[in-house]
Amino acid sequence: MDDKLATIRGRLRELQAKEEGILSLPSGTQNIEATVEAALAQVRRFAKFLAQGSIVEQKELMRGFIAGITIAPSKDRGVITGYDLPALLSAAGGDARNSARRGRSR
Is the pLDDT at 15 greater than 70, yes or no? Predict the structure, then answer.
């Protein structure tokens, strides 16, 4: 019983420290429309860049972003699983150093 209680208290301290860290982050208001437009502009630039390569080059490049593809013909469905990428885009409105640090802690 004491071991469980000690474990719960330890976990509570961890979560409280994590909450304090989250609450200490700057909470600036983001311009959602500008963020979406910047993201769409990056997608358009990426599409233009991708179109310049051969099909083999395109496949190799996309392999770096896609962890796997699962096809279920009986359900007429497919699932594309991507890799987790660090959120380092300045268009997201956050501090790149904090984003990278959060990405490593996963």
Answer: yes
How far, in Å, are 68, 69, 70, 73, 79 from residue 76 at the CA level?
17, 14, 11, 5, 11
CB of 35 within 8 A of CB of 92? yes
Cα(52)–Cα(19) distance, rounded to whole angstroms? Answer: 46
| Straight-line distance from the first to the last Cα atom of the chain, in angstroms, rounded to the nearest whole number | 30
Distance of CA 51 to the CA centre of its chain: 25
Tell me how far CA of residue 21 lies from CA of 18, 26, 28, 80, 93, in angstroms: 5, 10, 16, 33, 18
Question: pLDDT by residue (tens digit) across 65-103?
Answer: 889 999 999 999 999 998 876 655 444 444 444 444 444
